[in-house]
Prior knowledge:
Elements: E1 9-12, E2 15-18, H1 30-37, E3 42-47, H2 54-57, E4 82-89, H3 102-110, H4 130-138, E5 147-150, E6 159-161, E7 164-165, H5 166-170, E8 174-176, E9 179-180, H6 187-195, H7 203-212, H8 215-218, H9 220-227, H10 232-262, H11 276-292, E10 298-302, H12 321-325, H13 331-356, E11 359-360, E12 363-364, E13 369-374, E14 390-393, E15 404-413, H14 414-424
Parallel strand pairs: 3-10, 3-13, 4-15, 5-10
Antiparallel strand pairs: 1-2, 4-14, 6-7, 8-9, 11-12, 13-14
Amino acid sequence: MKTLPRRTFLKGAGxxxxxxxxxxxxxxxxxxxxxxxxSPTRMAFVFxxxxxxxxxWKPKQTGTSYELSETLSPLSKFQNQMNVITxxxxxxxxxxxxxPGDHARCASTYLTGAHPVKTSGSDIKVGVSVDQVAAQAIxxxxxxxxxxxxxxxxxxxxxxxxxxxxAYSSNVSWKSPKTPMAKEVNPRLVFERLFGNQSKxxxxxxxxxxxxxxxLDLVSQNxxxxxxxxxxxxxxxxxxxxTSVRELERRILKAEEETKRQRPDFKTPTGIPRxxxxxxxxxYDLMVLAFRTDTTRVSTFMLGNAGSNRSYRMVDVRxxxxxxxxxxxxxxxxxxxxxIDKYLATQFAYFLDKLNSVKEGDRTLLENSMVVxxxxxxxxxxxxxxxxxxxxxxxxxxTIKTGSHIALSRETPMNNLFLSMLDxxxxxxxxxxxxxxxxxxxxx
Length: 444
């Protein structure tokens, strides 16, 4: 049986489809096979707005013998595959003489650790985010250097928070200090980005074909030829992969049809589900698909723009998230926020479960990843930028020790964690943002 290159694609009618790791991609010979079995490390950063109710988020015990908190209880299945990290801070999210605007600062500093220039004009400036530092180092190895996802549309002009540009509230990923990486909120367009050829020739025809047919129909001829080169195990793996892609396509189409049916009198952008849970899960599934096929190894996901005032009626929260976050410790309001916090943690558990279901050699995709889930604010009522709510899941190919609540000193720069993560994807830099060193406590 012929050995396939790891970067094997299925092609047809303007579509390019990556493949998961197959046995046929592993070279013969013990040493070479062992090297090939070492899957790449992926990194993902998930941001949620408006901080959290920290007494309900933070575990009471530290170390390995800790109990998950009320908010994080949906993650119980993955307690041994993650760390809850408390004590991290983004000092540059503080005003430092610039006055109000903590929500804009919390998003713009979340992955940069840099202080944003206060402006609502075009002279925005903050710093390069950790995901883009990684993308600059390893992005050439994949079709997409990075993938930026979101739930709420944003804009990069105008004033969104006390004199801060909307660019600061709408983005956590920054390619350069003056260039945010715009996120995509439409699942259909994310899917097309993952599998479309993106060539200029015959672009309109290709796009029409893409929307009319399943990606699997477009590459079917190429796929059948490939199967003749594969053993039984790989054929089964390809069939499982195709089934998951077909199901994802079906859900995207269903979400589009549901949107049109529910609001025929309102022009809604195609592909954005009205159901929030389905929207979040589709985006998580697309991230898994991108990692699984090695289309990218770096991704960010904003569950809401900074200061988002979305309501969460599915958990009986009808008041806006941002409005509730200024709760003044009133129980009626903190109870509502706790419902939102737990709901978002439940969706994150869904993502981890999907990552954990994908086998890569003797590990899973989750074990080969590093996933940071958190917010740029701790207590949103006080607009605090220390003791941030943070979970880090995955073992980065066995190089991260998991299963603990790691309680750090109060002002540990979050960028210390980012430095340690960058080492693990081969993007070694000496500093990022306000880092003061590496977070060695996570080392095996």
